[in-house]
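Render this sequence as a predicted structure.
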Amino acid sequence: MPDTATPVLPIEPPSPMPASPVPEMKTALRRGVRGVCPVCGAAPLFAGWLKVVDTCANCGTHLGEIRADDAPPYFTIFAVGHIIIPGMLWLERAHAPELWVHMIIWVPLTLALSLALMRPVKGATIGLMLKLGFGRPAEEA
């Protein structure tokens, strides 16, 4: 008896590379910082606080497959540290306040800066990764 089963073709996931060309680096970064699609600049990049949309509603770029992972928190900690630490050192050197004064000033400022910078930094990282081709499938890279 011949085998009449139809062959099962593997389903390939869609490529995260956009159908339209990615704009120049500065434009992709700027759009990412603003929280819009780095390719078209029209649709939102985020579906929540830090959750990236799966697909751009305007141009169809598969943004959810671009994995920024640990880079945005690292860049945010780096930037916040370079803002907070000099201020702490200056205040200690100039006025030598009590420890509780440092805590009242620097803990909330650190939290506020970290939360304020995380989303723009993640958007810029996704724009950078898209421009550099990090979203390409392995056979195209």
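Summary. The chain has one domain: 25-132. Residues 89 and 133 are 41 Å apart (CA to CA).
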